[in-house]
Every structure is written in C-alpha cells, then in structure tokens.
Amino acid sequence: MRHTSTGVRRFSLFAIVGLLTTLGLGQAMHRHYVYGVPWVPGSEKFIWSIEARIEFTARGEPVTVKLRRPSDQAAFSVLDESGASPGYGLSFLQVGSQPTAQWSIREASGRQLLYYRVKLLQRDRDASDLDAAPPPPLRVPSWEEPYATAARTVLGQAVSLSADPFSLTRQLLQQFRAGDRAQNEQLLLDVAGEENLPRLIADMLQSRGIPAAVVYGLRLEDGRRRQKLKPLLRVWSGDDSEVFPIVAESTDPQLPLMLWQPTRGYVLEVNGGSRSNLSFSMLRSAITNYGQVASSLGETEDWLGFSIHALPIEEQAIFKTILLLPVGALVVCLLRILVGLRTSGTFMPVLIALAFIQTSLVTGLIGFLLVVAVGLMIRSYMSHLNLLLVARISAVIITVITIIAFFSIFSYRVGLTEGLKITFFPMIILSWTVERMSILWEEEGWKEVAVQGFGSLLTAVVAYLAMTNPLVRHLSFNFIGLQFVALALIMLLGSYTGYRLLELRRFSSLTDHAR
Amino acid sequence: MAISRKHLKALGIVGMNDRNINLITAYNPRHLFPLVDNKLRTKLLASEHGVATPALLGALHTQHDLKSLAEFLEPHAGFAMKPAKGSGGKGILVIASSRDEFFLKANGAELAIDDIRRHASNILAGLFSLGGKPDVTIVEELIRPDPAYKELSVEGVPDIRVIVYRGFPLMAMMRLSTRASDGKANLHQGAVGLGLALTDGSPVNAIQFDRNVREHPDTGADLMSVRIPHWTGLLEIAARAADATGLGYIGADMVIDRDKGPLLLELNARPGLAIQIANCAGLAPRLRAIDKLPPRCFRESPQQRVRRAIEILGEGQLNLKLRTGSD
C-alpha cells in the first residue's frame, strides 16, 4: 500500500459504486415490475393494428352508423384509434357504458364504406384473462310449448351433470354439439336457427337465473383480412366470468382472443342504410420501442417511475441520443483503460460514432476518411503560410465545410444520394481532428497518425455497434436507472490499476528476464 | 509476442493505469503541476534551490517580440528555442551554429530567419503547449556535451532521466537521440534508452522502440561501455529538484555540460514507463522498499537520501529479492 488513505479511498469508492448500482437496478426493476416495461425490446409485446370495415348501402336519407369500439381489457389496451370516412362526421362517444364510434351524414346514397382503425397493445398477460365486467341484467326468456318443456328437460339433464354455472355451460354446449344432439336439443335449435345457438344457450342459462350474454370477439392472427367477429358465450358467476367458444372454431384456439364487445349489446347499428357488413383486417407489429406505447398509454407515473416518456415526443427524440452517450463513454473507457488504445482526442470517437448512426457505418467510414484525408492535404499546405493558431483552425473549419459541400454535390450529381449523409458529421470536431492529426504528423510522423487514427476509428466503430444495438438502445432509453449502473462501471474502471492489454505486448521484450 | 500478466507482476512492472492512480494522482497534487509544466518557472525554482540549469538567453512573450528576433539572435551562434509549456520534447528547435544568413540545425539543415520566426510564432500561439494555451518562447544557451558522448548521440545531447519517488532517486536511464528520433530524446520517437544502475550509473540494458539493443543504431558505439561522470551529483540534483517542487513522483531530466557539469533541463510530473524496459526492472519493488523506510528518512538531506537510495536499491539487493519473490 503506497499511500495511507488508499484503503479508505477504495472503500468509499466501492460504497458509492454499490450504492449507484443498487439505485440504478432498483429503479430499473421498479419500472419493469410495476410498469411492465419489458427488459428486451419487443419481447412478449405486440401492437395489433385492427381495421374495421363497415360496408352498407345508403338509401338517400340521413345516415347514422354506430360501431362498438373496443375498450381496455386485461389482455389488451387501446393505444390509438382513428376513423376514415369521407364526408361523414365522426365522433367517439360513450353510449350508456359502451364506447362507440358514431358516423353521421345528412344524406348519402349507394354503397358506403367506413373505416375504423384501432391500435391495441397486447400485454404479456394470459390473453384469456378477462377483466371484471359487471354481469348484464337478466333477461328471462319465455318459450311457448312444446319448447318450454324441451328447454326444461335439456336444462334439467345438464344441471344434474354439473356443479356450477361454468360446468353447466360446458355441459349444455356438449349436449348441443352436432352429432351428440338428442331430440329436445334438435327441436330447440330448429326453431331458433343453427346460427343462433349462442343466443339459445344464453337464454337457457338466464332462465335458471345465471347471467349470460352473447359477446363478440376476434381471434387475432397476423396479416388476416376480411375476418368476422365470432359470437361467444359469456357466463357470469358472481364476479367471475368465463367466455366459451361455440362449436367448432375454424381458427386456432391458441391465438389471442380479443373481445370487441365484451358484454351484451350491439356491435354495429346502421340507421338509414341496409345490407350492412362488418369485417376486420389485422396486422401485428412487435414493439421495438416501448416509448411509443408508454406515451400513448398516458401513464400516470409516480416519481419512482419517472421516465423520459413524460416529455414531449420531440424532446424524447433528443434524449434518445443523449442517453446513448454514456454507452459511448463506457466503450471509450473500456478500450483506453483495459485495452490501451490510443485515440485522437478522448471523446472524439464517440462523436464520430454518433455521426455514423446518422450516416450508416460504411458511408460514414468512407466519408470520414475522405474528409480527413483531403483535409490533411490542404492543412499540410496551410502550414507553410505561417498562420496563427486560431485563424488556422478557423481556416481548417471552412476547408472541411467546403470539402463536405463538394462531396455532397459531387455524389448527388453522380447519383449517389448516400453521399449527402456526409453532412451529418460534426464539422468542428472534424476540423480539430484534421488539425491534431496534422500536428501529430509533423511531430511524430505518419506512424503515430496511423496508430491514433486507427485507434480512433476502431473505438468509433465499437461505440457505434454498441450504440446501435437494439437491446442497448431499448435499455438506455427505457431504464434511466441503468445510467447509474454505467456510471458505477465507469467509476470502477477508473480505479483499475492492472495492466492494459497492449502493455503485455509493449513490455514483451522483458520476457527473457521474467525468470 | 506478448508477456503474461503474471510475469509482469513478478518483475514488478508498473503499468499505465497503476502509474496514473497510485503514483501521479496519489503523490502529485494538481496545483503543483504548473511548476514543472512551465519551464520558465522550473528554471526560477531551480535557481532558488541552488540547482544549475542552462543559461536563459531570453524569453519572447508576444508576437510583437518576434519583430526584433533577428537582432536578438545575432550575438548567439547556437541556441535552443523551446516552448515554456511544451511537453514530451515537442517544439524544441536546436540551432547548432549559423552561417551567413542561415541557421544550421545539428543535422546540417538550413533554416532562414523566417523559419525561426514561424517556429517562435507557433510556440507563442500555443501549438506545442498543453491544451493549446498561449505560450512563451524561451531561448536557452546551447549545451556543450562532453566529447566522450560524441559517439553516443546523433544531432542531440544525451540526457539523463532520474525518477524520484518521495524524495528518493528510484531508477535512472540515459536517453540517446538517433536519426529515427530526429535528434529528440523521446523514447517513443525512436531514441535509445540506456538503463543505468542506481549505484554508479553503469549501463544495465539498452532499448530502442521497446526492443533490446547493444549498440547505438546509427554510430555503432558500444552502449555497454558508457560511463557517467558526476553520478551522485546528478542524483542529488534530481532529489533537490523534487524537493523544490513538492511533487512525490517526478522524472528529472538532466544533461552534463562539458564546462558546467550537471544541469537540470526540465522536470516531468508524468514520467513514462519505458524506463523499466531500459532497466529490465520494474518500479514496484523499489517503490515498496522506499515505502518501508521509517518516516525520519524522508526528512533527511538530499545527499543523505541519495546515499540511502543507493544502499537499499543497489543492484544486488533488489534483484536478489526480486528473484526469490518470483520463484
């Protein structure tokens, strides 16, 4: 121990590092577990874009169309909705407790097309996990004879084979399954109509005082078009409820089920038109950026959940870059302290890496080399002019701008629009790079320029790769706490006293003396 | 070609990170850096503490001073022009002689007065100073090397660097300029580093570009037969200079003038690590040996400390410990 306070200093450093790490990870976990921000971009989270297409024929009189809009559910939340309907007035309103889209027009005739679009976030919970919707009021049906007797008989048999409303429903569905039907069931279905089976079973359940309703849902499958809503049977028992698919479903029951109309009520109501038809198309996109979701969710966040998403979109975009800088700084620390790379200007590589993000890597590398090479040539001529330092660097800045302008125009002329991206380079930084490299060349020779140039570019490329990594971007933007972890890591690196990787080569001539 | 961390550790080699944290940050308070980063201040400080330095011919502070540069240089056949805040030998221009209108560098290259003026102007503008800050150009008397060193150095004067740790000389080497280093005494530019035993200044090992050599690459002179006069005097100057600055870890660069004896050239608060390669020895065991000394030793006079350092760091002693430690 070469210094008396070394131990104390080490201890307080580790204490701070520990504190920062705990704080950072704590905040990150809070965001993950409380707000459900995923660790991995797009993991388990999908956004469904669903388009409802309403088609009908108008009769040349005032038209009002009401469409039930989906509401937030346990498995899905509504992010964004919009409608397209030329000439129609559109309003989103609540009719009773039901969210509704209402189109209206003074006069319309002929075939009409209305669109309603909604973006749904599928949460990573079990898609069949229903939210608590209150049971609808009982509507006890009245059957005429002999149907009343038939219904009683069927029900009686099912009740004797079941224990609760849900098992009763399953038993009823079993009895009505095609092929298993007895005479009474067939009789009831004949009068109700095959397509009204859900309604029939709901009525039978209600006649026994069990709240039940026909609800409508969509099986979500990526890229499907012209899909119809599926009638489903929803049965309540106290606060619990269950949804039963009716008879053979053509779609995979594993697909997530989204309840468009989760309780009893209309789905589509067209006044002033006929032959209405409702169909759906859907698209799935994995979320690469939770930010969009969070902002449209309009999270009400407490101070612990504080996040960049509270800012306006434009400021968020700025922060997206700013929050990546610590990653770049970490890369520079790693490469300089652990590897021992020499760079021209400590954080110049990070700024170059930021430019690479805008230009894409290959374009950026070519552009950087071109500008610096030409800049160096012009700068070497300028050194004969005996200019004062500030004036010389200003001259280099103008030269760099001219070079960039020239390359942009030239590449545009020959049809390489990629070349225009060269303008994303930070000109002042490039000028300083040219100036520093030029002095380095004069003083230490081209070898040192090559070494530092290579070191800078390698660092820039590694920083670029780290900063464009989707996972890194996702984590740095959505978990501000991780910035503390990066800080802790950098502090740890700052106290590393071991050998650098390149020192093992530098001191290699000592090998013979090691024994 | 690489050496394992274990071997480096066994040799007691101090790495860059170790140096930065445990030597420079720990022993060199930031506020003392200007004392050594400004050669003008170093010279002043040295003369206050009775340490000889090359005579100052003059200092140029403003661009205006350059107008009369020709008249100012007139009486001096040879001189060294340096930035006061330069580092690593940057911006040092040595004029060995003048002929007619021209100034001749040691390698015979001719420079016109305008070239000299441009160089001085660059120095003032801060081209060679840390952080590009405006600087002062200092002009020093030329050093006349001992003729014995003629074969040892190309276009320059060999200088001797001594690392001083907490007032004790720790390790020493001679730096010999080569054609590759353009007359400069910087190892990373290709100068030869000749490790010197702390006991008597006899050569231990020599390197160029971090690789072992036996002879001067340009003159072919046998490096292992070099003898350094005034050895303890040199170590004393280094120890005295360290005292003057208050810095706990410095490199003192000195030259031996034919007529004036040992002179302090400059001090470095961030001395490099190549001296370990030149000496085939790590700094760490020596640092530990100094740290083990009782507190009173650190209050002794420079002469006493030099004697003590030679005694405890003398070749046989430490190498013996090193061997038993590594096996």
Task: Count all strands of chain B and give the number.
Answer: 13
The number of distinct β-strands of chain A equals 10
User: What's the arrangement of strands in the largest beta sheet of chain B?
Assistant: 11-10-9-8-7-12-13
**How many H/I helical runs of chain A?**
16
Shape of chain B: globular
What is the CA–CA distance across the termini of chain B?
23 Å
Weakly predicted, low-confidence segments of chain B: 320-327
Kindly estimate the percentage of residues of chain A that lie in beta strands according to DSSP. Answer: 15-25%
> What is the CATH C-level name of the largest domain in chain B?
Alpha Beta
**What would the average pLDDT of chain B be, to the nearest integer?**
87
How much beta of chain B, percentage-wise?
A: 15-25%
Largest sheet of chain A: 6 strands, antiparallel
CATH fold-level name of the largest domain in chain B: D-amino Acid Aminotransferase, Chain A, domain 1
Largest sheet of chain B: 7 strands, antiparallel
Name of the CATH homologous superfamily of the largest domain in chain B: ATP-grasp fold, B domain
Given helix and strand content, the structural type of chain A is: alpha+beta
Helix share bin of chain A: 40-55%
What assembly state would you assign to the polypeptide chains in this entry? heterodimer
Instruction: State the domain count of chain A.
Output: 3
User: Mind telling me the C-alpha Rg of chain B?
Assistant: 20 Å
Along the chain, the helix and strand elements of chain A come as HEEEEHHHHEEEEEEHHHHHHHHHHH
